[in-house]
Amino acid sequence: MRRVRASWAVAALIAAVTAASGCGAAGGSEVTQLRYQGSVGQVTPPELAQDLGYLGNVKLSWIGNTISGPQDIQAATTGDTDFGGAFNGAIVKLAAAKAPVKAVVGYYGSDKLTNMGFFVLDGGPIRTARDLIGRKIGVNTLGAHAEAVTKTYLARNGLTDAEIKQVELVVVPPVNAEQSLRQGQIDVAALSQTLRDKALDRGGIRALFTDVGLLGEFTAGSYVVRTDFLKKNPTTMRTFVTGVGKAIEWARTQPRDVVRARFADIIRKRGRNEDTSLVTYWKSWGVASAGGVIEEREFSTWIDWLERTGELKGRQVSAKDVYTNEFNDAAPGGAAR
To answer: How wide is the angle at C-alpha 148 spanned by C-alphas 147 and 152, nearest 5°?
Structure first.
């Protein structure tokens, strides 16, 4: 499997193209249709928000699916979509490349119910971080959540930089990760949410480590929007961001069976020929804060880590410049703005 990583040059080009082209509402009127990418067999917070009526006159326009957070936020940066979501560390990298985007609301994270685990076969030889030297770990994409957690785990368990480089991260679509592990194509599979629970139900695997065990509960990813789009469409963005936050809270406070039934209904109604079995395993989105309000530490943690590993290549990034809660009525004083 080929190792793929978006380069800083590509990110810089994205920023330049977006800054030069700019897009937004014509004639001063605000856009009320937002293009986005979804996930196969799953329901995203914006999709739930629309179904619950929390987006008012703002409508979502699905243009396809993605399995990669970095790809999703790059699509938002280039104007192919109007918002995209990714791991906060990936957003920091984009900000460091001067891409004109802002994180506006948290949408996924890790808690005791929902987290990312790194699974190995029962009875296999991998027991410690050092056993991973020379092994392959299957992740959904490089430069994002799974890679950051893996390297944090290795470093905290005493591996040197040279040893960490010997642990190979390979891209495997999430729906294929369990099968790749069982067939011996990879040694470790990063699994989360419903795919993790389905794999555990089948047995024969165990978690070597989890992100929540390593870092505690945290919001891991946010939706980003271009800064020019925010400026030209403030009312639309307040409706969208606040609506997403309301959907997160609705899902947090309803019985799980009610949420799962709603998800299954949404999937059936959108008519994409999808299997609804994944939603029966849904437990939470893992968002730490009420309404998806973003906290500074959710970005400063990854800025510090990326600086230590040299991935920012000397570029200076301030957490406060990466995100805004301006459009979220759940933020302190939000409704009064």
So the answer is: 115
Which one has a higher pLDDT value, 168 or 21? 168
| pLDDT at site 333 | 66
CA 160 to mean position of chain CA atoms: 28
288: Cβ contacts below 8 Å, ≥ 6 apart: 106, 109, 111, 217, 218, 219, 295, 298
Closest among 117, 256, 257, 133 to 195, alpha carbons compared: 117
Check if the beta carbon of residue 83 is closer than 8 Å to that of residue 225: yes
Report the C-alpha gap between 71 and 198 in whole angstroms.
Answer: 26
User: Do 72 and 143 touch, CB atoms closer than 8 A?
Assistant: no
Q: How many helices (H) and strands (E) does the chain have?
A: 14, 10
One-letter amino acid at 16 equals A
DSSP string, 242-293: HHHHHHHHHHHHS-HHHHHHHHHHHHHHHTS----GGGGG-------SGGG-
Indicate the fold that domain 116-215 takes in CATH.
D-Maltodextrin-Binding Protein; domain 2 (3.40.190)
Q: Is domain 8-111+217-336 annotated with CATH 3.90.650.10?
A: no
Which tokens belong to 162?
A: 């040279």
- Tens of pLDDT along 233-292? 999 999 999 999 999 999 999 999 999 999 999 999 998 989 898 888 889 999 999 999
Q: Do domains 8-111+217-336 and 116-215 have the same CATH topology?
A: yes
Q: Domain map of the chain by residue range?
A: 8-111+217-336, 116-215
Question: How many C-beta atoms lie closer than 10 Å to residue 272's C-beta?
Answer: 12
Q: How many CB atoms lie within 10 A of CB 52?
A: 15
Per-chain mean pLDDT for the chain: 88
